[in-house]
Amino acid sequence: MTVKQGERLDDLLGRPGKIIQSDDVFSFSLDAVLLAEFVWVPIQKGKLVDLCAGTGAIPLFLSYRTKGTVTGVEIQPRLVDMANRSIAINELDERLHIVEGDVKTAASLLGHARYDVVTCNPPYFLANETSLRNQNEHHTIARHEVLCTLEDCIRSASQLVKPGGKVAFVHRPERLLDILTLMRAYRIEPKRMQLVYPKQGRDANTLLIEGSKDGKAGLTILPPFIVYEEDDTYTSDMRAILDA
């Protein structure tokens, strides 16, 4: 498959695969790696959806944990094209596919209550947080709630997932109360949560949370996850993910 002008072929952080990326669009970060590792997945079969799929990093990482199918939903056509070419390069066309679509209408596009797992790495910042907005349209859409909100993502995930199915998000800790409130409002009972810290003694900067559609109450708080040692090398926990 062709890698177009301005694009590059990057490693998948410890995995044997490759991903097409470009400085012109939002590249994947450790958040995608952490979410793909955190979420429960069916090992042998199943149907998964990744909302706000971007260039397809989460579906690609999930492909190493499940033999099920993964459908990504992404609203930006350029990113859809890049993601599907990455999937082809990795010879995963039979199990992975990214479709162009709006998160808000994903269930109408893909079907209601058909999926075992839904993941989402949504825009983190509110649309009115202008001090953080990037002039690049691709970056702005990926980072800010200009085309979809947190509520849109949680509502859509609830519509897509089967009763008893899993829904998992990666977000910022400051949105925790919003996330919990919205998950319960849309019948996703929070079941597992983990805070991620850049280093020991620092404030948490990432939140991983998973819920079950129509699940029973009961939230498990997992041990803190620390990414870097003081010398900026990866911790043993982070290396275990990257070397899996």
Structural account:
- GO terms for molecular function: methyltransferase activity.
- Its EC number is 2.1.1.223.
- Keywords: Methyltransferase, Transferase.
- This protein has 244 residues and is of the alpha/beta class.
- Helix content is 28%, strand content 30%.
- The chain is built from eight helices and eleven strands.
- The protein has helices at residues 30-38, 57-62, 77-89, 106-110, 137-143, 150-160, 176-185, 236-242, and strands at 7-12, 15-22, 47-51, 69-74, 96-100, 115-120, 161-171, 188-199, 206-213, 220-221, 225-228.
- The longest helix has 13 residues, at 77-89.
- Mean pLDDT is 91; it is low at 138-146.
Annotation keywords:
244 residues, alpha/beta, nine-stranded mixed β-sheet, 8 helices, 28% helix, 30% strand, globular
Listing every helix as H and every strand as E from the N terminus to the C terminus, the arrangement reads: EEHEHEHEHEHHEHEEEEH
Shape: globular
Average pLDDT number: 91
Major β-sheet annotation:
9 strands, mixed
What is the C-alpha radius of gyration, as a whole number of Å? 17 Å
CA(first)-CA(last) distance: 27 Å
Beta-strand fraction estimate:
25-35%
Helix content: 25-40%
The count of β-strands is 11
- State the low-pLDDT regions, or none: 138-146
Q: How many separate helices?
A: 8
Protein name: tRNA1(Val) (Adenine(37)-N6)-methyltransferase
Keywords: Methyltransferase, Transferase
Domain Methyltransferase small: 34-132
EC number: 2.1.1.223
